[in-house]
Amino acid sequence: MEAFLEYVPKRDIFDQIPEKTKEQVKKIVDFLKTRSKAELVTISAVGITGLAGYFWVQNKWKYWQRKGIVGPKPTFADLGNTITTFSDLGESLFHNFSDDVIGIYFFGTRPCLIVKDPLVWKDVCIKGFQNFTTVMRGEANYAFGKMAADFMTTAEGRKWKRLRNTIGPFFSGARLKETCLVLQDTYEHYEEKYIPKTEVEAKEFSAGYTLRSILGSGYSLNAKENEQLVEEVYRHSNILFETSFFGIFKLNITSYPNSTDKFFREVIAQIMAGGNDGRINLVSLMAGNIIDDSEELTATKGFTKNEIPQCSHSCFFHFRRLLAVQNEIHNIVKNADLSYDGLKKIKLIDACIKETQRLFTFIALLREADHDCEVAGVKIEKGNLVMFLPSGVHKSREFYEEPEKFNPHRFDGNESNTLQDDYWFGFGIGPRSCPATRWAFVAIKLFIANVIKKYEIISGEGTPELADLKMKFVGKQVKTTKPMNIRFKNRI
Ligand code: HEM
Questions:
Q1: What's the gap in Å between 4 CA and the centre of ligand 1?
Q2: What integer pLDDT is reported at residue 371 of this predicted model?
Q3: How many angstroms does the Cα of residue 433 sit away from the middle of ligand 1?
Q4: Where is the signal peptide, in residue numbers (predicted)?
């Protein structure tokens, strides 16, 4: 009641109502006068429900204010603070609020505490894991429709543990040695068929290689042997990622066409039925560990992974202006052995990948509280969210000297990704960090090494400067506001 009264306008407000509004109110009153009793009852019920809903939401949006925590104003159009937070991955929040914690509302009215301190985030993910075992339950998990229920990202408890343990061996050193051979084969096929003679958009170029490398090494679908199927997967992946998820959450419906859903299920069934080259892959590993018939095998989100192209295309985009770095890499790779063991010695590319992810951070990290607990001195209730925006840390002068500069040598001596860095969060942290980190590094390294071995990457026509580029969400994927065109100049 108190919350309601807070919103009931005070008397003098009526004097300030503009004439135009008064006329509109009169029109509504006249309209209501002509309605039947039954119609008036229905209109009143809808009106009262709407008003009650409005006040209920406004009251929910006072949660952080009541706790004395600052934050941006939530609105209905922004689904709380969801769209604006997503649109720049929280960078403006970092600049607009100097406090260590910021309160926002996610997916409508869900309170979400943004923590800025990287050490607090480490505590949440590692020491506090028993309180934060999932990324998020509910709304966001419906972003990919029905299929999402089977992703590892949404799995919990024993099912999650089992999935994680099952795919673990796929990323072991021994397996990666084998993976490297497949990746090299994939690259050679891709180069022969696709290295553009003229200009190309860096992301498109990287995405094509990535999909083929994931399908080849993760799913035993060899692009060389079945290019047509791979192109179909590419087409359906784009459909999956380009459909927006705002507006469909909670409805548990599939935002993409049924044909795409059917296509992916059929491809998985085909792999499970042995329609591959007999090598161990993610699907066969999981097929061997199914304990519940209802479980589908879309379980890792790897099938339609987006992050590798994000990372490699950003690397290429940076390289076009960094001929010195390119030449440095070229000198190392021109006669190098690009096997798994050989790649390990090429540390400069690891550093370039880390530096690219630092400057081009396209992730926000999230955890949901399983129990009431405390984070950074703030009481967090069960079901509320805690979020960390690595882009703020990655671009902070406090942690990085001249953070706006691309300088891979800042990681000299600390190039490898051990997930132990204090101020670098490219693959997350703790038990729910990215299980494919080593695999991703190998795939990107091999790609970059192969390209730079033969080509010099230069700017394309009208290629924007880094400062003119902003990231934006298109559907469910992060893209840049302008195309990142690059060209390949043959070194030979
Ligand atoms: C450059 C490439 C990649 C980047 C930057 C990346 C980044 C991330 C990040 C930031 C997280 C969340 C970590 C956290 O919340 O602490 C994550 C989780 C995850 N990633 Fe990756 N990833 C990449 C490639 C891949 C690939 C290729 C696969 C699959 C084969 C994959 C599978 C997963 C899975 C299954 C999870 C959820 C893990 C869990 O909930 O236990 N990632 N990744």
A1: 44
A2: 95
A3: 7
A4: none
Sketch out the chain's domains with CATH numbers: 1-60 (no CATH), 142-490 (1.10.630.10)
Residue nearest to atom 7 of ligand 1 (CA): 427
Q: Note the pLDDT of residue 446.
A: 92
- Ligand 1 neighbourhood includes 426 CB (under 6 angstroms): yes
Task: Assess whether the C-beta atom of 435 lies below 6 angstroms from ligand 1.
Answer: yes
pTM for the predicted model, two decimal places: 0.80
First to last CA, the chain: 78
- Mean residue pLDDT across the chain: 81
Contacts of 101 (CB under 8 A, 6+ apart): 69, 113, 114, 115, 116, 376, 378
- Give me the mean pLDDT over the 102-116 stretch: 95
